[in-house]
Amino acid sequence: MASIFSRIVAGEIPSYKIAEDERYYAFLDINPLQKGHTLVIPKREVDYIFDLEDSELAGLQVFAKKVACAIKRAIPCVKVGQCVLGLEVPHAHIHLVPMQTEADMRFGGKHQQLTPEEFEQIAESIRREME
User: Fold this and answer.
1) Torsions phi, psi of 27, nearest 5?
2) Helical segments of the chain, H only
3) What is the pLDDT of residues 37-47, one digit of tens each?
4) Pick the catalytic residue: 37, 91, 93, 95?
């Protein structure tokens, strides 16, 4: 059975897409730590990020960098933090989280509660910065 992320890439499950190319996909986390919290994934389903081919891993990081730069332009923050956890979904992914302080990256802490309209507004503001 395909992971939830593969189903998102296939269009079976809706997402707040930020960016996509032939190999990678970025979308807003629906349980965000901060407004603009984005997940970046390879389209090829691989559970463990370090099982990706070297070229895939390098490409994923370059793609994530472009998304992170767009997030920083769209969401007021000091930096965009990057984290790889990978236990909750068996599909390699990178978390990009706008930060004011390092406390903004606490995954065990409080998450943002956003409306569908807020998600769409955030996604649109980041997408505009991707161009």
Assistant:
1) -150, 155
2) 4-9, 54-74, 116-130
3) 999 999 999 99
4) 93
